[in-house]
Amino acid sequence: MVNKLVFGGRKSEDDTVVEMLASAIRRDISFGVLRPDQKLKLADLRQAYGGSNHSMRETLRILSSEGVVEATNQRGFRVTSATEDDLRDILLVRLEVEKIGLKRSLERGDVAWESRVVAALHGVSRADAVVQENPDDVTALEWDEACRDLSMTLISASGSPRLSDMAAQFYGQSRRFRLALLREGRIDFAARAARRTELQDAIMERDEDRALAVLEDEIGADLGA
Predict the structure, then answer these.
(1) Which 3-state string (H, E, C) describes the chain?
(2) pLDDT averaged over the chain?
(3) CA distance 10 to 110
(4) What CATH number was assigned to the domain covering residues 10-79?
(5) How far apart are CA 148 and CA 150, in angstroms?
(6) Which of these, 98, 72, 76, 55, lies nearest to 223 by C-alpha position?
(7) Is the model's pLDDT at 1 over the cut of 70?
(8) Tell me: the pLDDT tens digits for 74-102?
């Protein structure tokens, strides 16, 4: 069900409201409440989520910049498609960007970066355990956020904010596919745990070839490839 957000007064026009609207719509796209290619009409969105015309247009602009919503020729908006071709394209970009980021981080990262990586790996392990025990929408989103934190941490020592921004954008675009795998029970959690152990060992040893190979396997499995 789509939860209606109630906003009142002039605050409905500020950045906080836009952020809340974007978060709600982003979530519903991720879980398939808003379907791929579905037209997004302002009146319908306002009825479902609240906000003003101005705040909703700004919300759609932000989501469009993230690639989860796109403008149509009729000057409207729709949810982006989620075809096999889309999946392959997202996988291609994620592989290239995140492998470059990890390679640079292995070259530049210090002990503090290694500590952040270990903490992020531990966070994913805990999230895996929780979501297997109680796979509801809340734990699924927390699990996805832990996975996102690991991906961003791995490239955080790359020294390139633009590269990190691009990685975050395409990670976000892959969320629908990843959560679908989770809902369908198609994630091999034991294999994930084994890859994380190998990835940590490779990073601690600064074994670039091994670390990049494990990362490629992880991203492929993350999207069901």
Answers:
(1) CCCCCCCCCHHHHCHHHHHHHHHHHHHHHHCCCCCCCCEECHHHHHHHHCCCHHHHHHHHHHHHHHCCEEECCCCCEEECCCCHHHHHHHHHHHHHHHHHHHHHHHHHCCHHHHHHHHHHHHHHHHHHHHHHHCCCHHHHHHHHHHHHHHHHHHCCCCCCHHHHHHHHHHHHHCHHHHHHHHHCCCCCHHHHHHHHHHHHHHHHCCCHHHHHHHHHHHHHHHCCC
(2) 92
(3) 47
(4) 1.10.10.10
(5) 5
(6) 98
(7) no
(8) 778 999 999 999 999 999 999 999 999 99
State pTM to two decimals.
0.87
The CATH superfamily assigned to 84-222 is GntR ligand-binding domain-like (1.20.120.530)
CATH 1.20.120.530 domain span(s) along the chain = 84-222
Length of the chain: 225
Q: Which pLDDT score is estimated for 14?
A: 67
> Which tokens is 105 given?
């981080």
